[in-house]
Amino acid sequence: MTLRARLTRVVPASALAILALAVLAGPAAAKKQSSSVTVEASKQVDQAIPPATSPTSWGLFTSTIDIGNRYAKKRIRDLNVTLQGTANTQGAPGGLYTTITSPSGGIQTVIFGITGTAWGPVTIDDESPFLIGFSAPPCPQLYLCEPYKGSAKGGDGETPLALLDNGKVRGTWTLTIYNQNNSPTAVNNLVSWGITVVAGKPYALKN
């Protein structure tokens, strides 16, 4: 397995944008904007997701990514989660329920009930205009369906990843997949997954 993390500065797109920020909001605001960083980490997994052992049980799979001490003082400002997987049977991934657990212990649903023989890479992004769809093509308007390549919100009724904002960036991130499919011939595989975190200073609390 391989794990990589990359740090990039999050800055306005042009010098004019920086100048406008400084004029409108003052030097302090510009300095605060430039203090944000983007942390990207991914893991190549290539492992089977265990099937359910009965119609009322769930197969369980977990994978972790560790973010180091250099981000100890940073907090989550925005979080995206990217997944890629395969299956050997059409419709086999139906019933995969996936959550992400942050280093602070917060748990949010990432995606639920995807179908098809391949999924992703798909990035779950609160800001995407699309939702995850579960119908066969043609896909309804503003839905992302099989093979789920692109970005989308988690789906109808899923909790937004923004609920993890202001949590810790440093520490262990855990992806958990619950597999409801109990067919002995249906094999689901997680190829890879990763996170992209825009991180900054903790939010200031005012009385």
Overview of this structure, please?
- There is one protein chain.
- With 207 residues, the chain is mainly beta.
- The protein has one domain: Jelly Rolls, CATH 2.60.120.260.
- 9% of the residues lie in helices and 43% in strands.
- The chain has two helices and twelve strands, in the order βααβββββββββββ.
- It has helices at residues 15-25, 27-34, and strands at 3-9, 37-49, 59-67, 75-87, 96-101, 107-112, 118-124, 131-132, 143-144, 150-152, 171-179, 188-200.
- The strands form three sheets. A six-stranded mixed β-sheet has the order 1-2-12-4-7-10, with no helix packed on it. Strands 3-11-5-6 form a four-stranded antiparallel β-sheet, with no helix packed on it. A two-stranded parallel sheet has the order 8-9.
- Strand 5 and strand 6 (107-112) form a beta hairpin.
- Helix 1 (15-25) crosses helix 2.
- It is globular, with a radius of gyration of 19 Å.
- Residues 1-33 have low confidence and may be disordered.
Brief account:
By secondary structure, the protein is mainly beta. Helix content is about 10%, strand content about 45%.
Secondary-structure topology with pairs:
Elements: E1 3-9, H1 15-25, H2 27-34, E2 37-49, E3 59-67, E4 75-87, E5 96-101, E6 107-112, E7 118-124, E8 131-132, E9 143-144, E10 150-152, E11 171-179, E12 188-200
Parallel strand pairs: 7-10, 8-9
Antiparallel strand pairs: 1-2, 2-12, 3-11, 4-7, 4-12, 5-6, 5-11
